[in-house]
Design goal:
globular; mainly beta; 22-stranded antiparallel β-barrel; 682 residues; 7-stranded antiparallel sheet; 6 helices
Length: 682
């Protein structure tokens, strides 16, 4: 993809929109978003920049992997470590896991409590079951607590009352793609329910040298909505998923200090949301949620050179290779998170409204080979949050909010925000905002201890986190100033751009630390052979300066164009030792995406989706320096209705311009072509 083309498309709103595009003031900024402040707000009055991906965009994109659609968000970076693990994060500031963004499904956080990762590939959520995705770009801790350090992704699924009575789809194609999705829905007295089944299967990165096996996922979701009275309703959901990752992988080469590429993962979640509206402008919302994960690695044997306490280090390569020992692989853990949240929406006056609430969370992880001791490891946290919106004048709006959070393994933190919005005209809006973000350390970062077994039954340590021994790691902190501009001449066009400066302090970084007091693997380092283990520390600060722009335009009745672009410059505020990962290098200078959709007639439509990511390196010492990556994806669709049914056929081609190396030089995702067949009642 040529970046000048993206610049030209983003200048389209300024120079290319004809005057005939109407100026009906009632339509300006009419689309609402909830995620930035928990209050329903027009896009041009949001205190933070936001990208909305609606159901039409989801279908037109043709994606079958959920994280891939996030490439259409300015500044979002997505990689493919393996079929099981697909990091997706804002700015690219991440290692293998999406630890610095908050991900919510219907308001419930779904990150894995064990290591804070978002295992996108193991979620039992079909693309066809998603109504929209809202992505807040920038710190948003004041609204959603720890983990919303850099961004917040809110996935809103379809409601049982708003879907067809039955429907299903199937994908079949190259690279072993074999997917099935089926859904039933029905109304009952005062409510409705929906049952959804998802099966996904593919051969993974079979065409690439560093093959990490295939994957298979089966998931079931049961959701219900029930009216309790004219002023109260209840939503609930039960979900279960089982994933097998690394099918056909060479297990003896698959060992990681955290999560491997080959494992069986079972996760289930349950949530209940009760809403009560006692009067106009007053609403109470109670959420109760439970999320559990069972991780299990297959049994395997690998050979390694082990250093025992008191032994001399090898002095030559021959000595290093001569004395290998068999190690048993096969770790497992069980993690569960309980969460309760109460929020209250208040209309205090005609020009003043707000929301406040409190949340409690407990996380428990049990796994002797992940934490070095039997029994559960616990982390409890509590938070209080609030947000006010004051319309000072018809064209001036002030937003302010804050959160206080306490964690049992770290410090009490405070995270405020402030935004001033001014409508220059009904279609032109300026936004000046200051946002802060907090990320509390995870249990694994603070006290994780992973191991394999020697033949004599003694452990060999891969991870020895030392945070808990030194009083606990500090929370990561982000502070951002942003100046934004929003242009919406009518409902057909939304153009948003901003310039920002973000500072991130007390970054929690992994390092390979010398360990001589316990048995540990030996690694070649600069001509020496040293026993090293994975550890994490608070080290360094980071400055990021950037410009972002996005355009969503309906060019007439049959054509839609979505363009996004981000320019980022990052630098470390201090010189770090060479054994620390360079977080500035994990932020690509340019990222861009384009999606063009056109309907030819009532039956035929097509879409083109392209994305580009500049050179970067994922933030871990062993990751490759990546060249710029790009991808071209096409979809041709056919729709026909007869009687009470609708048939949909889509031919989809992904990475048509060649293998996509977006994580490692030998890893990524290859060219894949598949046919999607869907049938549903009307």
């Amino acid at each position: 993809m040529r970046l000048p083309i993206v610049f030209a498309l983003l200048l389209f709103p300024v120079f290319g929109v004809p005057p005939a595009f109407g100026m009906n003031e009632e339509s300006f900024g009419a689309e609402l978003a909830i995620t930035p402040s928990r209050l329903p707000q027009r896009l041009d009055e949001s205190p933070s920049p936001i990208t909305v991906i609606d159901r039409d965009m989801l279908r037109a994109s043709g994606v079958r992997r959920l994280a891939d659609i996030l490439r259409m968000v300015p500044g979002m970076v997505v990689g493919t470590r393996s079929p099981a693990i697909q990091p997706a994060t804002y700015l690219g500031l991440s290692d293998d896991y999406s630890r610095r963004i908050q991900v919510l499904v219907d308001g419930v956080s779904i990150y894995a409590p064990s290591i804070g990762a978002v295992l996108w590939q193991d979620l039992p959520i079909a693309i066809d079951d998603i109504e929209r995705i809202e992505v807040v770009r920038g710190p948003n801790t004041a609204a959603y607590g720890s983990h919303a350090l850099l961004a917040t992704v809110k996935i809103i699924t379809v409601k049982p009352r708003e879907v067809a009575r039955w429907g299903g789809s199937a994908n079949v194609g190259s690279n072993g793609v074999r997917d099935v999705h089926a859904r039933l829905a029905s109304e009952v007295t005062g409510g409705a329910w929906m049952l959804s089944y998802l099966h996904q299967e593919d051969d993974g990165q079979a065409r690439l040298p560093d093959y990490r096996g295939g994957r298979r996922l089966d998931g079931v979701r049961l959701r219900g909505d029930q009216d309790l009275s004219a002023h109260a309703d209840l939503q609930w959901e039960l979900a279960f998923a089982r994933a097998e990752n690394g099918l056909g992988n060479a297990l003896e080469s698959d060992v990681s200090a955290a999560i491997n590429d080959s494992f069986r993962d079972e996760n289930n979640h349950q949530f209940l949301t009760l809403r009560h509206r006692p009067s106009a402008g007053d609403e109470w919302v109670l959420r109760l949620a439970r999320n559990a994960q069972q991780y299990k690695e297959p049994f395997a044997i690998r050979l390694d050179r082990i250093h025992q306490p008191g032994e001399p280090f090898p002095t030559s390569l021959e000595e290093f290779l001569a004395e290998t020992e068999p190690l048993t692989l096969g770790r497992n853990f069980h993690a569960v998170r309980y969460e309760a949240e109460l929020e209250n929406h208040v209309l205090a006056a005609r020009d003043l409204r707000g929301v406040w609430g409190l949340g409690l969370r407990r996380e428990e992880v049990e796994g002797e080979l992940f934490f070095g001791e039997p029994g559960p490891q616990r982390q409890d946290s509590a938070r209080l949050f609030g947000h006010l919106e004051w319309r000072i004048a018809p064209d001036w709006l002030l937003n302010g909010g804050a959160m206080v959070e306490n964690s049992s393994i770290s410090e009490t933190v405070f995270s405020p925000r402030l935004a001033l919005i001014h409508h220059l005209t009904p279609s032109h809006t300026l936004r000046l905002s200051w946002n802060t973000g907090i990320r509390q350390p995870l249990l694994f970062e603070n006290q994780g201890r992973t191991a394999t077994w020697q033949a004599n039954g003694e452990p060999v340590w891969l991870t020895r986190a030392s945070g808990s021994q030194t009083g606990g790691l500090d929370a990561e902190r982000a502070s951002e100033w942003s100046l934004g501009y929003h242009w919406a001449p009518n409902r057909a066009v939304q153009w948003d751009m901003r310039a920002y400066h973000m500072r991130i302090d007390d970054t929690i970084r992994p390092l390979m630390r010398l360990e001589t007091e316990v048995a540990a693997p030996l690694y070649p380092v600069g001509g020496f052979f040293l026993p090293l283990v994975l550890d994490t520390r608070n080290v360094g600060s980071l400055d990021v300066y950037g410009i972002e722009a996005q355009l969503d335009a309906r060019l007439g009745r049959d054509t839609r164009l979505h363009v996004n672009y981000a320019l980022a410059e990052a630098r470390e505020r201090e010189t770090l030792q060479s054994d620390w990962p360079d977080y500035a290098a994990s932020i690509p200078r340019h990222t861009a995406g384009v999606m063009l959709t056109h309907r030819f007639n009532e039956a035929w439509d097509a879409s083109l989706r392209m994305h580009y990511t500049d050179s970067m390196r994922w933030a871990f010492l062993t990751r490759d320096e990546l060249e710029a990556s790009h991808s071209i994806n096409l979809r041709l669709g056919y729709t026909r209705s007869w009687g009470g049914e609708r048939l949909r056929l889509d031919l989809i081609g992904e990475n048509l311009d060649g293998d996509l190396h977006d994580f490692g030089l030998q890893r990524g995702w290859g060219r894949t072509i598949w046919l999607r067949v869907g049938l549903e009642s009307t």
